[in-house]
Amino acid sequence: MPSKNSQSSGTSKAMLDKSCDQLRVNKWDGPSVRNTIDDAIRKIFNEKYDTWTERHTLADGRLIISTIAVGFAAIALIYDYYEPFPKSKPVLATCSITYFILMGVLQLYQWYIEKGTFYQAVEIDPSERTPKRYWKWSSSIKKYDDKYILEAEYMQEPRTGYIKVLKSIGAFIDEEGVIVLPLLEKELAHIINSVLRKDG
């Protein structure tokens, strides 16, 4: 493992080595490790799983809430420009309160709806013999812990499935901080087979 001194001298952000298409991360930075492994999983699914198509419904929901909040802020700004304070006071108060309420709603949405979800996909059978299967993948890393928690769930009427896997980050990252994609790809295939077999 690299020395801890490298944490202060190096950047904590993940880097993509374009010359060899490798994902590299500072192993001492938990949030960056989690985000980089998430990105690697997304990369594998998008490039290797031909029957999967990424969806962004949760991200779209977050974007809608944010857009509405920004809209109220813009209304307050424009109205105050044409009707300076104190005439604009009621509108400013209403828009400000609404903005902060929406920011609270956004935070709750991220906590209780998204729940760390980083990838959504729909799996379509080319032969159209089976219904579409909707996947949702989420992850987390506890503070000061090296355990990467990966959760996968799917919905395929009338079936559903869920699995939770806990792995040390060392299972996917080498001594240089590079994500070992073949190992990660193998683990993902095992998880998918396990959850489908479990709920089959």
UniProtKB/TrEMBL annotation:
Domain of life according to the entry: Eukaryota
TM region(s), chain numbering: 63-79, 91-109
Residues in coiled coil: none
Function according to Swiss-Prot or TrEMBL: Component of the signal peptidase complex (SPC) which catalyzes the cleavage of N-terminal signal sequences from nascent proteins as they are translocated into the lumen of the endoplasmic reticulum. Enhances the enzymatic activity of SPC and facilitates the interactions between different components of the translocation site.
GO annotations of cellular component type: signal peptidase complex
PANTHER family: MICROSOMAL SIGNAL PEPTIDASE 25 KDA SUBUNIT (PTHR13085), SIGNAL PEPTIDASE COMPLEX SUBUNIT 2 (PTHR13085:SF0)
InterPro entries: Spc2/SPCS2
Gene designation: bma-spcs-2
An annotated Gene Ontology molecular function: peptidase activity
Protein name according to UniProt: Signal peptidase complex subunit 2
Subcellular location: Endoplasmic reticulum membrane
Lineage: Eukaryota, Metazoa, Ecdysozoa, Nematoda, Chromadorea
Keyword presence, Transmembrane helix: yes
GO biological process, alphabetically ordered: protein targeting to ER; signal peptide processing
Keywords noted in UniProt: Endoplasmic reticulum, Membrane, Transmembrane, Transmembrane helix
Topology of the protein relative to the lipid bilayer: Multi-pass membrane protein
Family to which this protein belongs: Belongs to the SPCS2 family.
Species for this entry: Brugia malayi (Filarial nematode worm)
